[in-house]
Amino acid sequence: MDFYIQASNPVFFKEFISGDECLSDAIESSFPLFTENAILMWNHIAIPLSYKYDISYMIDDILTLLNSLSTKQDGEMVIHWLPDTFRSDWEIQWSEQVIKISSRWECTVGHLESILNMNPEISMTVDDFVQEWKKVLGVIIEGLKTCGYSELVIADMKKLISMYSKITDNGVLYRN
Predict the structure, then answer these.
(1) Which of 57, 96, 143, 161 has the greatest number of CB atoms lying within 10 Å of its CB?
(2) pLDDT tens digits along 147-165
(3) What's the Cα-to-Cα distance from 56 to each of 2, 63, 137, 138, rounded to whole Å?
């Protein structure tokens, strides 16, 4: 496969931060800096994603994308991923259950941009793409709950849990 995600097994803080009001802040507070990263594989190139900083900054766009893919037969969108260590623009198109992503990479951990930009496109089924995110969302939910966050405290946590529940199967690394 040209795209898949290893969610890994990060540790979580076991502390609730009462000042956190949004999902991004709660995720950032739940994961220490030095723990396992998720690994996004893009055309056989491994890109580490920190739960604390990358995924916490990306979560709103991830949920928006997954929701669009789950509710619309076809569409297109552009995402400007903003984390310093996953700075990329994705032009996304999907129809007839196939998603195509054209990317432009500007900054990654390990300075992989030139290699990534040599083969910037992926194409796969929408279901396979969405399923790659299930385990990552599950890790986030587990981390948030371990730290004492709930839907009563973090409004978008309900959206996160709902999206997780809608995804019917795990990604390729986690299927039985």
Answers:
(1) 143
(2) 999 999 998 999 999 999 9
(3) 24, 12, 11, 14
Neighbours of 3 (CB within 10 A): 19
Alpha-carbon distances, residue 153 vs 144, 156, 175 (angstroms)? 11, 9, 32
Quick one: which H or E segment has residue 24?
helix 23-30
CA 93 to the chain's CA centroid: 18
**Residue of 61, 104, 55, 100 whose CA lies nearest to 79:** 61
**Residue corresponding to tokens 């032009």:** 91
Query: What percentage of the chain's residues is helix, strand, coil (to nearest 5)?
Result: 40, 25, 35
DSSP codes, 98-167? EEEEEEEEEEETTS-HHHHHHS-EEEEEHHHHHHHTHHHHHHHHHHHHHTT--TTT-TTHHHHHHHHHH-
Given a contact cutoff of 8 angstroms between Cβ atoms, the answer to whether 147 and 30 are in contact is yes
**Confidence category of residue 42, pLDDT binned at 50, 70, 90:** very high
Token pair of 153 as six digits: 């405290």
